Amino acid sequence: MKELIEILKGLHPDVDFENTTTLIDDQILDSFDIITLITEIDSVFDVQIPAEEIVPERFNSAKALYELIEELLEDN
Predict the structure, then answer these.
(1) 71 lies in which domain range?
(2) Which InterPro entries match (predicted)?
(3) Which of 20, 29, 44, 58 is deepest in the core (most CB within 10 A)?
(4) 13-16-18-22 Cα dihedral, nearest 10 degrees
């Protein structure tokens, strides 16, 4: 989770990613941020996020995003 928080803070250093649960709903993350996140997650965690998983629920919080990463790691 620490690595993910660091990636997110690289995008928006002023956001409390550990407690915010409305990253998409409140438009904190935009489409460019999502693309950057997907690329960084692939690089750091060596997992590819399938297109069907790129939905607001998966990106609304760091916790939800990390759960997705864990699921993808388990499937590998």
Answers:
(1) 2-75
(2) ACP-like_sf (IPR036736), PP-bd_ACP (IPR009081)
(3) 29
(4) -110
